Amino acid sequence: MNNQNNNSSINATVMQAVQSGMIKMRPKWHFILRAALAIIGSIVLALFALYLASFIFFMLLRTGAWFIPAFGFHAIVVFLISLPWLLILLTALFVIILEVLVRRYSFAYRWPLLYSAIAIILIVLIGGFAVAKTPIHKHLIEYDQGNGPLCCGGVYRDMDRPRSNDIHIGMIIEFTEDGFRLQDRSQENLRVVVSKKTRLPYGSDYSVKNVVVVFGPLHDNIIDALGVRRIEEMEPFLMDQSGPPPVLYQGAE
Asked: Per the domain annotation, does 156 fall within a domain?
């Protein structure tokens, strides 16, 4: 009985507020439109965040920066310096706005804020890395080179610009007494000097036509290699595989 009286009192109060103009009735389509715009906005933000994450991963893979932390502390510092921090901050902003929009839905606000945030971050990171390993960005580069800058302002044209003079990626074209010669993406030949201080964390069995990332200072087209690593999974993706037959290399004496 008390509940019925309370409900009647609340209903009467609400109706009185509506009649007095304190509360304005909104049509049903208004709420449907708001929900639709929120859903569309969430999808668009998710796609932008996914694209930026995939672009960041693709840039790090293509320039070789992704692979250098295996060469030690100095390489980790260079890796951190080489990160595109502006794009990372922009991606983080998209993720934060996406989290705000997603929290509007019942399936999300029932979760703790930390859980939903971690879920969105993992989806963006894992999805971005997966997209980066597909040919999508490679096709966009080819389109950019053949048809002019895309809406991204020609960002693909600046992608291969080295962010560090210590990171070099290319194809082995021949071996020398003290290392090998490397042909980078600009068709420039570099001499790589391999010594006892060179780190080879994944072995030293290299062949002509292998794609490798070399970490070390460059002076007069000579790289004093502090680390060398083959990038086997990226060979068909990054470089032209035409050339002489493979010749095995067993590392520096």
From this structure: no
The verdict on 111 and 179 lying in the same domain is: no
Q: Does the residue 157 lie in any domain?
A: no
189-198 pLDDT, tens digit each: 999 999 999 9
Q: What is the extent of the structural domain holding 87?
A: 29-147
Q: Dihedral of CA 45/47/49/55: which sign?
A: negative
Separation of alpha carbons 64 and 212, rounded Å: 8
In a domain, 1, yes or no: no
How is residue 246 annotated by DSSP?
A: P
pLDDT digits (tens, 9 = 90+) for 21-63: 555 556 666 667 777 777 888 888 889 999 999 999 998 988 8
Lowest mean pLDDT among 1-15, 30-44, 97-111, 222-236: 1-15
User: 218, 198 in Cβ contact below 8 A?
Assistant: no
